[in-house]
Specification:
This protein is an alpha+beta fold. The radius of gyration is 18 Å and the shape is elongated. Strand 4 (80-91), helix 3 and strand 5 (117-130) form a beta-alpha-beta unit. It has helices at 29-32, 39-58, 95-114, and strands at 12-16, 34-38, 71-77, 80-91, 117-130. The strands form two sheets. Strands 3-4-5 form a three-stranded mixed β-sheet. Strands 1-2 form a two-stranded antiparallel ribbon. The relative contact order is 0.17.
């Protein structure tokens, strides 16, 4: 297997790959190489996971509800990701409940897609948008 490397200056993490082909005549996983995931790639995955979670919970994509797209910043150290999300939420809403649900959904999805442990997901609510505000919004 080939080792992927990033030429960007962003910090990256190494995730050891262990495929289903272990024992199929291949060297042990530790000798086969590693997949390198830059922080910015994990941040894109986290942002998309937040988008999907919001769409699932509210029945429509954030843009259709008048909400800006979720933003994510990620720091990965030692195979563990720390994620900071910035989101808009429709109003009225249980902010704490929505933040917890979003934390759980994003942590699960990022771990599933990247193989990283997610140690922390912080959610910052950028703004609350009254429901129905999307209809009067001009772009």
């Amino acid at each position: 297997m080939t080792t992927a490397t990033a030429t960007a200056t962003a910090t990256a993490t190494t995730v050891t790959t262990a495929g289903a082909a272990a024992g199929a005549g291949l060297p042990p996983p530790a000798e086969r190489g590693a997949t390198v995931l830059p922080d910015r790639v994990v941040a894109r995955v986290a942002g998309r996971a937040a988008h999907e979670a919001l769409a699932h919970r509210w029945g429509a994509a954030p843009g259709r509800l008048g909400l800006d797209e979720p933003g994510a910043e990620v720091s990965v150290r030692g195979g563990e990701a720390r994620i900071a999300l910035g989101v808009d939420l429709p109003y009225p809403v249980d902010i704490a409940g929505e933040a917890r649900a979003l934390q759980d959904a994003v942590a699960r999805r990022v771990a599933d897609l990247t193989g990283l442990r997610v140690g922390e997901v912080t959610v910052t609510v950028r703004r609350l948008v009254p429901r129905g505000a999307a209809a009067g919004r001009v772009r």
